[in-house]
């Protein structure tokens, strides 16, 4: 069977129980580059590694892609999916046992770790130096949990989004940010901030779906396998994470 063909001549996506017929509706907390960002020139209005992956999944299933900007905390808790807001949450979301109580995950598609970002003129050199310091984290994330467990004596401040965290460190309202390495790396681009420590938390991102939507999980995993087999996954990976 070719991609997009369910084997009986109908589009593979047509037998899936979707929020909106003929469309793969994806929730994502945007911006979170390089995984998700706004892009007026792209057909979906969005760009990023996650967006390209779900675009390929939608194409393979013969579906249109619609992306909705959503709060990460509502995605990781399962609230948005269970309320029928979208079919998939694609949001650089780490597969965790706790989340698996409320959500189903696809096979993993990206391995990540945590990192500590500080201003280049900061005296903070490691997580040990955070005592009495203000550390910005994103609400509901694995970075928030890691900071609460490992940064003893720090004042942990949770923000709804990466953009708000970054504004806070630029304004000097927090002394450091602890979150996923590839995203902190984007914040080092201007030269004002640097990553002083990485933490091997062995996290793997997955696409999240409603727990009972087994048909969709299977269809998505087939598409991810197809992406890897065709070499398209490697091309996307190199495009976003080369060097
Ligand atoms: N990987 C981390 C987690 O799953 C952070 C993800 C945040 N994603 C986002 N689009 N803001 O908790």
CATH hierarchy, class of the largest domain: Alpha Beta
Residues in helices, as a percent range: 25-40%
Annotated CATH homologous superfamily of the largest domain = Periplasmic binding protein-like II
Low-confidence stretches: 1-9
Class inferred from helices and paired strands: alpha/beta
Beginning-to-end CA distance, first to last residue: 36 Å
Number of helices: 9
Q: Write the CATH fold name of the largest domain.
A: D-Maltodextrin-Binding Protein, domain 2
How many structural domains are formed by the residues?
2
Mean pLDDT: 94
**Can you list the ligands bound to this structure?**
arginine
Overall 3D shape: elongated
Describe this structure in words.
This protein is of the alpha/beta class. Helices cover 32% and strands 26% of the residues. The chain contains nine helices and twelve strands. It has helices at 49-60, 72-76, 79-82, 97-100, 142-150, 162-170, 181-187, 214-230, 232-241, and strands spanning 23-28, 37-38, 46-47, 64-69, 88-89, 103-105, 110-119, 134-138, 155-159, 176-180, 193-205, 208-210. Residues 29, 32, 36, 72, 76, 91-94, 138, 141-142, 162, 180, 203 line the site of arginine (ARG). Arginine (ARG) binds next to α2.
